[in-house]
Design goal:
mainly alpha, Heme Oxygenase, Chain A, 13 helices, globular, binds protoporphyrin IX containing FE
Length: 263
């Protein structure tokens, strides 16, 4: 443990040895927020993994259209999340889990959007309804219950840190991209070891002081965060299916005379 803690301190001068030493995964208890949150979102995680969009990733068949639309949604989501985290960075429920230098995604997403949509990407991006609902919820809790932001930060950032490297390679291969252009979203240059960082993040989550009621609120919000993500993925896929069907119908209409002639 000391070795691990030393490694973490070396990775980041602000991480104290004591802090990373405090709790390893073996020492976590059932009452730790990090354990409870993982437990209550377990089923939701399975459902998120099994959305059509996430299955496309896992099958190595993510299309450029899917990825571009996903980036549009992520832009809206992270803009709201990071603005609310920044605004509430001194709140006792946010300060311990506030890691903008290591985790902030907004600039990376902007870079990817520019790569795929061009310099005028701001005029071209679309924000589907479910994505609007998600960002609206983030802004609402940022104003009314900043202590719930940890549930959303956990859901997005720990998920990104868990699957990032694998998903980046899959996306690169599926879309035939050269190098890492368009894939900045997946890269965390400020995090040398995602596993060590996740360990630190969990211990920071566990240090947040919450009343029983607040804790239940955070757990409920985490399930909601997963649900909002699932709705974003489903909505996005529905939009793509409608577009696909339309273009299929167009090509059918187009080919009808030819078929008639053949008959
Ligand atoms: C963690 C897989 C999608 C949120 C993980 C872990 C794996 C994984 C292997 C590490 C588990 C561990 O360390 O014990 C996947 C796969 C996905 C996917 C294959 C789909 C392609 C998502 C989505 C979200 C998400 C869509 C949320 C929007 C999380 C979170 C964690 C996590 C929050 C951290 C759990 C914890 O340690 O408390 N995921 N995931 N994942 N994932 Fe996913």
């Amino acid at each position: 443990n000391i070795e691990r803690a030393a490694e973490a301190t070396e990775l980041h001068p602000n991480w104290t040895t004591m802090e990373t030493e405090k709790k390893t995964s073996e020492q976590m208890t059932d009452t730790d927020l990090s354990e409870q949150i993982k437990k209550v979102t377990k089923d939701s995680h399975v459902r998120a993994e099994n959305t059509e969009l996430m299955l496309s990733f896992q099958r190595g068949r993510v299309t450029l259209q899917q990825y571009k639309l996903l980036l549009c949604s992520l832009y809206e989501i992270y803009q709201a999340l990071e603005e609310e985290l920044d605004r509430n960075s001194n709140h006792p429920g946010v300060a311990p889990i506030y890691f903008p230098a290591e985790l902030a995604r907004l600039e990376a997403i902007e870079k990817d959007l520019e790569y795929f949509y061009g310099q005028d990407w701001r005029q071209k991006i679309v924000v589907p309804a479910a994505t609007k609902r998600y960002s609206h919820r983030l802004r609402q809790i940022g104003k009314e219950n900043p202590e719930f932001l940890v549930a959303h930060a956990y859901t997005r950032y720990l998920g990104d840190l868990s699957g990032g490297q694998v998903l980046s390679r899959i996306a690169q291969k599926s879309m035939g991209l050269k190098g890492s252009e368009g894939l900045s979203f997946f890269a965390f240059p400020g995090v040398t070891s995602p596993n060590l960082f996740k360990q630190l993040y969990r211990s920071r989550m566990n240090s947040v002081e919450l009343t029983e009621e607040e804790r239940n609120g955070v757990l409920e919000e985490a399930v909601r965060a997963f649900e909002l993500n699932i709705q974003v993925f489903d909505d996005l896929q529905k939009m793509l299916n409608v577009t696909d069907n339309k273009s299929q119908n167009r090509s059918l209409t187009h080919s009808t005379p030819v078929q008639t002639l053949q008959i």
